[in-house]
Each structure stands twice: as C-alpha cells, then as structure tokens.
Design brief:
Layout: H1 2-10, E1 16-19, E2 29-43, H2 56-60, E3 64-67, H3 72-81, E4 90-93, H4 96-104, E5 109-113, H5 114-122, E6 126-128, E7 136-144, H6 151-174
C-alpha cells in the first residue's frame, strides 16, 4: 500500500518502492513508470453486467470488492465511483489479484487497473460497466531515497527508466484503443458525460 511504502522509505527500511497512489512524497526521488486506466467491472454473469449503464443506486445494491484503505487504487476508486463509493456492502481484500479473483467469481463489482484485467475483458469473463463518469488513470511511480545509490539499485533504476520510456510511447500509441467506443465514459462529441 502506498502510504506504508512511503513510510518505509522515510524510515530507510527499504531503498526503493513502486507506488500507485496520489500520496505526498516529499524528499524522495520520483520516476513516473507507467500510466494505466482504472475501470469498473463485474463478472459477465453478474446482474450488473446486463445494465446498459449503471447509476450509483444500482451499484449500491451490490457488493463492492475493495482494496484495503491506504492503497493507491482504492484512493482513486473513491474518485471514480463518487456517490456509489462504499454505498452498499463491501468486501475488502489486500491485493489486486484477490479483487480480480473475487470479481471473476461473481462476488461483486470492482475498480481494477486495465493492465490487470485486459485479458479477462477480451475473453468476455469480465464486463466493463458504463457509469457515465469520466475515465480515470493512475500512475505507477518508482520512489527512492536520494541517498540510496548502490550498484544494484542504480541498475534497477536504469531499467525502470527504460520501462518508463517504452511505456510513454506505448501509452501515446494506444490511448484511444484502451477506451472502446460506447463504454459510457464520454458523451456526444467525445466530451465528458455527466455523472453522479
């Protein structure tokens, strides 16, 4: 979780961390590694998957599969879901893979990074729920203490920089492909649709 990772860096318990949340990172060296879209999903057989568009009240009637508080994804999920955020039953899980597995099992709906579930969406196992709210992206950021410079850490940082450069090109090339038409995230003419 982002908050704990930053605390460990400041305590010098770790030299480097990868975080996803919009947390204050004062005194740390930062490297933006990749950007990914967060999407609202449910299993193909879940009742929400049959809705053309879901409203906050629709989501509140079903279990929300959440990450633990303090996780970067969860902080952004609150922004993405608005009034629907934790408005109904909640099952809190500690890892993205656990949330994904619970969503695939039909236990509720979730907010997950597109990178983690792209294959599930393509295979039809999960369905993206059209909320009418603006799409939301998260950034994966590498952090390290400025005083942390070992040969191994410097080599890892160099590798992350190369990954970031590759991801920047990939994001620019494929941004439109990541948002299929008719997903409910944009109104006529490509503008943001009103949401709740």
């Amino acid at each position: 979780n982002t908050h704990e990772a930053i605390a460990l860096l400041h305590e010098a318990a770790v030299d480097c961390a990868l975080v996803e949340g919009p947390e204050t990172r004062g005194g740390l060296e930062e490297l933006a590694v990749e950007t990914d879209e967060l999407v609202v999903v449910a299993a193909a057989g879940h009742p929400l998957a049959g809705f053309a568009r879901v409203e906050a009240a629709d989501l509140a009637a079903y279990r929300y599969l959440a990450r633990e508080r303090g996780s970067g994804t969860e902080a952004l999920a609150a922004e993405l879901l608005g009034a629907a955020y934790r408005a109904g039953p909640v099952l809190e899980l500690g890892q993205v893979d656990a949330v994904r597995a619970a969503a695939l099992a039909g236990l509720g709906y979730a907010v997950l990074p597109l990178a983690a579930i792209g294959g599930d969406l393509a295979a039809g196992h999960l369905r993206r729920l059209a909320t009418g709210r603006a799409a939301l992206e998260r950034s994966l950021t590498a952090l390290r203490r400025p005083s942390s410079h070992s040969p191994a850490l410097d080599a890892f940082w160099t590798h992350l920089r190369a990954v970031a450069e590759e991801a920047t090109g990939r994001t620019a090339d494929h941004r439109a492909a990541r948002r299929p038409a008719g997903n409910g995230d944009a109104g006529p003419g490509g503008g943001q649709a009103p949401g709740w």
